[in-house]
Amino acid sequence: MVWFRQYYLGCLSHASYLVGDPSTGRAVVIDPQRDIDQYVRDAEAHDLRIERVIETHFHADFLSGHLELAEATGAAISFGEAAAGRTEYPIEVLAHGTRLALGEVELEIRATPGHTPESISIVVWEHPDDTTPYGVLTGDTLFIGDVGRPDLLVSVGHTADDLGRMLYHSLHEQLLTLPDATRVYPAHGAGSACGKHLSTETESTIGAERATNYALQPMTEDEFVDVVTEGQAAAPPYFLFAATQNRQQRALLAEQGIAAMTLDEVLAAQRAGAVVLDTRDQTMFGAGHLRGAVSVGLEGRFAEYTGEVVTPSTPIVLVGEPGTEAEARTRLARIGFDNVLGALDDYVAAFIDHPELVEQASRLSAEELAERRVSVTDLQVVDVRNIGELAESGTVPGAVNIPLAQLVARLGELDPAAPIVVYCAGGYRSSIAASTLRANGFTDVSDLLGGIGAWAGSGGELART
């Protein structure tokens, strides 16, 4: 009998796995997150020895924990054969067709390029002579309701078209040849930027995906490439950084305290180029924050959205509710942002003692935006949602679409002297965008409370793309 556990990290929509054979105690971890305690703890509790870490590909959306696990357990690190020679650390490559025996439990490696050239899937067999496998770990090749996007700029020398064609063949020749009852366990779920229609479910079957997944319906190879590349979200800028880091011999995640910083120390760091990252929710941020701070609330996809507006090399100072500092640092470390200098000590007292350094954010109701669209002739309205969202709900007429992931790179398209209103689906991303604009010298910036939903609910006119 196989010992199998999925670990789902909601804030990054990331799934990793521990697979073992209780009869021998041999186990592997697949696609681990960077903080590895849960794998080590569960392995010890169930008398399993983690002897190998298998990566389905070079991940771009998070920093994997393969180096941390190798250090903690002595495990070998394995990738598919196409990853050979591409890492700074030693790996044991796994060729297509390889079967790794953990005892009765066997893992079959299938090369499934497309999302990336080195992508593999791992078929889990409870017994060598079974006709139907226990399941298949599909990495970013096959998701629940979707397939991996082939257009991320992390595969030098490959185009979206040729990767899309690889993906088509991997799906039809390697995964859809498995029995319908085979369970499907992907590396990501809903919210991940590695696809566009990922389900909130975290497991499925080959049969269910064959029947319901839009990308697996009967179509030609050319049609498949068109449908899977159309409407993909803008890739967060940190993706290339994370993918590169996952190939390098980098520093290990270290447990350490968060330095408590005085207001003077925070201001000095800010003047030297650090970003002040306010992790409170947007309502608290709007009520009062340190001038120039960027708002990314911990309650959302904190690390990912930080990586959309902050560069990996930028030092970070945290401002947030007491007791949240360690969580914020860990979540940033999961995408490789290890440069947290510390956190402002007792922000409430600091704000009270120095009100001249505190400002409020302008947040508009839908009715106020409607009035401004009439009365302010040079108003710039910016929709920071991804392109796939626009067709679903429409846009404010005249709004320019600059997805949040592209905002910093496209600042030159906006007039810093003219008033700006930004909006998203519900208000979380627009608070990030508005604060980012203010931190970059834009002086009159507001965001729309409740986003496009509030606008539509108030009877506001909608343009359709």
Summarize this structure briefly.
By secondary structure, the protein is α/β, with parallel strands linked by helices. Helix content is about 30%, strand content about 20%.
Fold and architecture overview:
The structure is a single chain. The protein is α/β, with parallel strands linked by helices and 465 residues long. It has three domains: 3-245, Ribonuclease Z/Hydroxyacylglutathione hydrolase-like (Metallo-beta-lactamase, Chain A, 4-Layer Sandwich), CATH 3.60.15; 260-359, 3-Layer(aba) Sandwich (Oxidized Rhodanese, domain 1), CATH 3.40.250; 362-457, Rhodanese-like domain (Oxidized Rhodanese, domain 1), CATH 3.40.250. The chain contains 15 helices and 24 strands. It has helices spanning 37-45, 66-73, 160-175, 206-212, 221-229, 238-245, 263-271, 282-287, 302-309, 325-333, 347-353, 366-375, 387-393, 428-439, 451-457, and strands at 3-9, 14-21, 26-30, 49-54, 76-80, 92-94, 99-101, 106-111, 120-125, 135-139, 183-186, 204-205, 260-261, 275-278, 289-290, 294-295, 316-319, 340-344, 358-359, 362-364, 380-383, 400-401, 420-423, 445-448. The strands form five sheets. It has a six-stranded mixed sheet, covered by helices on one side. The longest helix has 16 residues, at 160-175. The radius of gyration is 24 Å and the shape is globular. The mean pLDDT is 95.
